[in-house]
Amino acid sequence: MYYTRSPPGLRTRQGRWGGEAELDEGDGVGAVLRLLKERVNWALERDRRVEGRVAAVSRVLWPWRESRLVVLVGLLALLDYATTCAALELSGKGHIEEGGMLAGWVLRIGGLGWLFLADMGAVIALSIAAITARILYFKFGFQGFGRAAFVVLLVPYAVVAFATVVNNLVLTFL
């Protein structure tokens, strides 16, 4: 461990895990502010080093453009609704209970029309959250994290919606 030069009242020590700042006694608020600024700068440097790997992982999860993911999520939501209608009405097995708690409640309260509104509301809310996270990360200069947040918010929904569509089709035709 060795010490590096830093502003008066603040000692910086380079250790195994990077820089660590220590506040010398006797200096006031200025040293505390310098310490905070130094910590923020180190955190930004660390995040910049990791950003490329995070973006690479998001490209493994979704290698295409982000706009295609929003379209896929919307189409899967429509397919989910259509196959749910088919499973409930066309299968000839009577009333099949909806697997999701919210969807089951909406079906009991308002029927298929309300289920469509609930599905679209959930997809729109999730898409707005993903787009907002992406915009905020881009605004602060973290494009890799923005793409990753977008993908991490929407890909799990797409996977679950796809599984639901397959399940509804199996229930309809069996």
Quick rundown:
By secondary structure, the protein is mainly alpha-helical. The chain has helices spanning 29-61, 66-90, 101-110, 112-139, 143-173; strands at 2-4, 10-15, 18-23. It has two domains: 2-50; 62-173, no CATH class.
Quick tags:
elongated, 174 residues, 3 strands, 73% helix, 2 domains, single chain
Descriptive account of the structure:
With 174 residues, the protein is mainly alpha-helical. It folds into two domains: 2-50; 62-173, no CATH class. 73% of the residues lie in helices and 9% in strands. It is built from five helices and three strands, in the order E-E-E-H-H-H-H-H. A three-stranded antiparallel beta sheet has the order 1-2-3, with helices on one face. Helix 2 (66-90) runs parallel beside helix 5 (143-173). The longest helix has 33 residues, at 29-61. It starts with a strand and ends with a helix.
